[in-house]
Input
Amino acid sequence: MIKKSVDLVIPIYYRNYDEIGVSLKKIHNFFIDNLKNYNWNIIIGLNGPNKNNIFNFCKKLTSMYPRVSFKYTLTVGRGATLNDCWINSSSDYVSYMDVDLSTDLRFFHLMIKKLDEGYDMSVGSRYLPQSKNQRSFFRYFISKVYNHILLRMLLDVKFTDSQCGFKSMKTSVAKKIIPLVKDINWFWDTEILYICQKKGYTLKEIPIVWNEKPNSGVKFIKTILDFVLKSFELKFREI
Output
């Protein structure tokens, strides 16, 4: 039986210097023990300026672990990194998870398995009945309003959680979807899910265990306003 191949991208920028080393070790060891049925690759996707000597640090990490590579995208933005890595992948599947590992790694195999079952895209959701979601009330409330009121009313979305940093897709589908995505920052997640739905691709959400990490690069109020404006723009965009 030929094993399917999967690329996991960990998008980072220079402020993630203290996180990437610890997280990479956990992910690498987990994959060795639990992803024996796949040919997997881990890609450190650095975007933005080379501060704190982050470039050289990432290169050093790739020499410490087999099947780990490094890709640098000068453009600032998590979406820019994911676009670059996903559209240039030669693996069967592409995926990503946030560097803070808020989502329990145990659910990665389940997410990829849904692609094996025929779904075009598989993503984690913090808001399915079986999910366990530990976070501050403020962020929980804002996220629920965004996902369950704004997006459903405005875009008629069928998914429950647009922004969970735990996503995967068939590479063949990613190569068709990514050229349609405009945002290269945090709204990237909402946009790629919406376009996937709009184009008729099959999407499967899986329940996860998610624990909020205090260290975040998101400027929250500014991001909320940005999301609202971009959601309206997306509604009237011809896709």
